[in-house]
Write a structure and sequence with these properties.
The complex is a heterodimer of chains A (153) and B (275). With 153 residues, chain A is α+β, with helices and mostly antiparallel strands. Chain A is 20% helix and 40% strand. Chain A has a 4-stranded antiparallel sheet with strand order 1-2-3-4, covered by helices on one side. A 4-stranded antiparallel sheet of chain A has the order 5-6-9-8, with no helix packed on it. Chain A has a two-stranded antiparallel ribbon with strand order 7-10. In chain A, a hairpin with a 7-residue loop joins β8 and β9. Chain B has 275 residues and is an alpha+beta fold. The longest helix of chain B is centred in the N-terminal third of the chain and has 17 residues. Classes of the chains: A alpha+beta (153), B alpha+beta (275). At the A-B interface, β4 and β5 of A face β2, β13, β15 and β16 of B.
Chain lengths: 153, 275
């Protein structure tokens, strides 16, 4: 192989690597950007949580994405005394649960395995300062169904 | 025995207590929906009855008044949220009404009634088709109601009603999920494009335009504050609701794929003291 051929091959390889890297960056940015009008709130494991408030501030809409999968696309009331879970759904063995918590709360949202009652790990996602609530949630990949604990004390 | 008597008295007091949305007791001439009917028949009857009122465009206060006058169902929750959620995603929108709680003193049964109404935006989820052809809009949709407390459920029913030429009302035979915290259903939503004869832009019909779920439960002997919420799960294209789950103040949907779907939860409903 001539030096010229080696040089061209190296250039092509570098271009391909650059192209792949660029595509990865674009995909990452696409995931980070989220749907139009939504704010990136945080992540549950490897899934990204986006949310937006309705203009009148009564409702909240949430989209949770993992790679190209949309695990949740849901809407519910914003805040209040007993807000229901925004996301509580599963596809295959993946179950995602997301609920609202008081702004600044560090309390365990107390999510449990619906079958065994065992306490499940959860994460609190702090929202921007303009929001009146934070979020807390959990994702289980093992077929575990998540629900609020019933033996809350 | 003392607890039972106390609870009975409490339920009677609640059903007539001023300051709630049910300030008046059921009139003596009313006839309980349960008269001559099984638990399931009663739930279907109440659901169809409410469907008829909603199809006539009656507002909530008139529905409450009618239920008290004719079926002895006195609303006992404190009103709670008066607004519902409108979900808008991929062109679809729905209003979800949380459970309103009623007491039938004749039958000694509580009833909770929640519901939904879809807007015409759902036509955007229709597969391409010609006029007067009925098509499924994706796979099954789902609807469920859940409460914060464990209840002694005695029955449940879900009725949906469509635009002509679809059936004015249909009951879903079997629930997808039911336990002491509530019940959920899945059902096939369909659409049909029709000729807009009047030129009003109204050329879409669906079989599930509105609907409601009725859940009945009986006295437990222990008084508790009960409230609930409802949720609608919608799909289109190749996505379907594969399952519905109900837990303590929890409604889950299981989807066949990760795309072409949304859920909308209602506000929490008003709180009622049930015993």
């Amino acid at each position: 192989m001539s030096a010229r051929t080696k040089l061209v091959s190296a250039a092509i390889a570098a271009l391909l690597v650059g192209l792949v890297a660029a595509l990865l960056v674009i995909e990452h940015q696409r995931q980070d950007a989220g749907p139009a009008g939504y704010t990136r709130i945080g992540a549950l494991g490897t899934s990204v949580v986006f949310a937006k408030q309705s203009p009148e501030g009564k409702d909240v809409a949430v989209v949770i994405r993992r790679d190209s999968d949309e695990l949740c696309n849901a809407r519910g009331p914003l805040g209040g005394a007993h807000p229901p879970a925004i996301c509580d759904e599963s596809v295959g063995d993946v179950h995602v649960y997301l609920t609202q918590v008081s702004k600044g709360s560090t309390e365990d949202p107390q999510l449990c395995d619906a079958i065994t009652g065992a306490r499940l790990p959860s994460e609190i996602l702090a929202t921007p300062a303009s929001w009146s609530v934070d979020f807390a949630g959990s994702i289980q990949d093992s077929g575990t169904e998540i629900e609020p604990c019933t033996d809350v004390s | 025995m003392a607890a039972t008597l106390a609870c009975s008295a409490s339920a009677l007091i609640v059903s007539t207590a001023p300051g709630t949305s049910a300030a008046t007791a059921a009139p003596s001439k009313c006839s309980s929906a349960s008269t001559g009917r099984t638990e399931q028949q009663t739930n279907n009857y109440v659901s169809n009855y409410v469907a008829g009122l909603r199809q006539k465009g009656r507002p909530q206060d008139q529905i409450d008044s009618d239920l008290a006058q004719n079926l002895c169902l006195v609303r006992i929750d404190n009103g709670g949220a008066t607004t519902s959620v409108v979900a808008s995603s991929a062109g679809s929108a729905v209003t979800v009404t949380p459970p309103r709680i009623y007491w039938d003193n004749q039958a000694a049964r509580y009833y909770a009634i929640s519901g939904w109404k879809l807007s015409n935006a759902i036509k955007n989820d229709m597969p391409a088709t010609g006029l007067n052809v009925t098509k499924n809009i994706g796979g099954h949709d789902g609807f469920a109601t859940s409460f914060n407390a464990s209840l002694l459920l005695t029955g449940y029913a879900l009725t949906y009603y469509g635009d002509p030429p679809f059936a004015s009302s249909a009951n879903v035979a079997n629930a997808s999920a039911a336990n002491s915290y509530g019940a959920g259903y899945s059902f096939q939503d369909k659409g049909r494009n029709v000729y807009d004869m009047a030129g009003t832009g109204d050329n879409f019909r669906t079989n599930v335009r509105s609907g409601q779920e009725v859940i009945s439960f009986k006295k437990s002997g222990t008084c508790k504050s009960v409230y609930g919420f409802a949720s609608y799960g919608h799909t289109w294209s190749s996505t379907a609701v594969n399952g519905v789950g109900v837990g303590p103040y929890s409604i889950s949907f299981q989807w066949s794929t990760t795309s072409n779907k949304w859920t909308a939860a209602s506000q929490p409903g008003g709180t009622a003291t049930v015993c």
